[in-house]
Design a protein that fits this description.
Largest sheet: 7 strands, parallel
CATH topology of the largest domain: Rossmann fold
Radius of gyration: 23 Å
Helix content: 40-55%
Number of domains: 2
CATH class of the largest domain: Alpha Beta
Strand content: 15-25%
Distance between the termini: 28 Å
Number of helices: 20
Length: 394
């Protein structure tokens, strides 16, 4: 009846055995990606047992089996990690004990390499039968390629957001799948059929207070110079939070630019589809702008010591995600001392009034955005995890 006697019975029973997965996410962005993947995975494995650590979005899916720790775990910078070392050590020990007790078929690690690669090493040593899958590959190709051979030994599969990452990890001997960027789904949901407004310049100084403090005054000074030459220009700056909106509005008042500069509560994705061009802080917003075809220049400023150390560590020619993805300069990068008002004004003039330059950039942004993959990144990633849960290694 089952096409194989005892073996057929075993296959049916094995297929129905409850599966288990342990997942570790350490930041809010990873929580969103982890939740998207788990939601898709649940469709294939309704009785899947999930344990681990993440954030509020994953908690909604997993329930009591997940510790919500991202508010405390998402610390930035070397000294912040050192200050929290004891707490991290305790979390690590507790989570490892949970995983050892659970003995999951799959350990799923999402980004957060400082913690997750160490956790992978500990799990590999104590649970050799557990398959270790990594989602959202660490950017070791930028700052420490020496870690890649170690990752080859620790991981069973790497799932990448960018196509060039697949080539890097696969050539080192690590099973690697390009699943595309989940940002595509989020942006498609926000797409609107609207026209660009001539003379509207987007100012996007970032979502962190430190970024806004460093970059927004420079953007405002650039706007002042541009507005003095072209009084018809208008500027809009979306704030990532109410606190940042209040701070940015004070800066606008101090610069006496209230008539020309509007600070909004959120709305960055809408603005990217309306503005003629923009000045954008380095980060995910540059990918968002590329996806919506907003011509822009990238600005980046950090503390002098941080920049010096980064220059020593980072071994790639570009820092902007769009340029890294394209493998060439698509948008101009104005970094540190180059991120000054005269340089920003000069680039904005090119984007506003040099038609040939503008059309060339629009084309390159479209070509680059297409490299992010289509919609369904979480579903593709979930299907790879599902294969490991089923015991397949293809």
């Amino acid at each position: 009846m089952f096409g194989g006697g005892r073996m057929g019975l075993c296959l049916v029973a094995c297929a129905r055995m409850p599966k288990s997965l342990y997942i570790v996410v350490g930041e809010l962005s990873g929580d969103a990606h982890g939740a998207g993947l788990l939601r898709s995975l649940r469709r294939d494995f309704s009785d899947l047992t999930i344990r681990g650590a993440g954030g509020p979005q994953m908690k909604e899916i997993v329930g009591e089996g997940l510790r919500d720790w991202v508010e405390d775990s998402a610390v930035m910078g070397f000294w912040e990690v050192i200050k929290h070392y004891g707490w991290f050590k305790q979390q690590f020990a507790e989570m490892l004990a949970e995983a050892q007790k659970m003995q999951p078929e799959v350990l799923l690690l999402v980004d957060y390499p400082g913690f997750n690669l160490r956790f992978a090493k500990a799990v590999r040593a104590s649970l050799p039968k557990t398959k270790i899958v990594y989602y959202i590959s660490p950017q070791v190709w930028a700052w420490n390629r020496g870690r890649i051979p170690k990752m080859v030994k620790l991981l069973d599969e790497m799932m990448c957001l960018f196509p060039f990452e697949r080539e890097i990890f696969a050539s080192a001997g690590l099973k690697t799948t390009f699943v595309g960027h989940p940002l595509v789904d989020e942006l498609e949901a926000e797409r609107q059929e609207i026209s660009r407004e001539a003379g509207l310049v987007a100012l996007l100084p970032g979502s962190r207070e430190r970024e806004v403090t460093r970059l927004f005054p420079t953007m405002l000074e650039s706007a002042k110079l541009l507005h003095a030459e072209q009084p018809n220009l208008r500027f809009e700056a979306p704030a990532a939070s109410g606190k940042l909106a209040a701070m940015m509005r004070r800066m606008v008042e101090e610069s006496a630019m209230e008539e020309a500069v509007t600070v909004t509560d959120g709305g960055s994705l809408h603005l990217m589809q309306r503005a003629a061009c923009g000045v954008i802080a380095s980060g995910t917003a540059t990918l968002e702008a590329a996806y919506f075809g907003l011509p822009n220049c990238l600005v980046y400023k950090v503390a002098a010591l941080t920049y010096y150390l980064a220059k020593m560590l980072i071994k790639i020619p570009h820092i902007g995600l769009v340029n890294i993805l394209a493998g060439k300069s698509v948008v101009r990068e104005l970094i540190q001392d180059q991120a000054n008002p005269p340089a920003i004004v000069a680039e904005m003039k090119r984007l506003l009034y040099d038609e040939s330059y503008l059309e060339g950039m629009k084309h390159q942004l479209k070509v680059t955005a297409d490299l992010l993959g289509g919609e369904g990144a979480h579903e593709r990633a979930a299907s790879r995890v599902a294969e490991w849960l089923r015991g397949a290694q293809a």
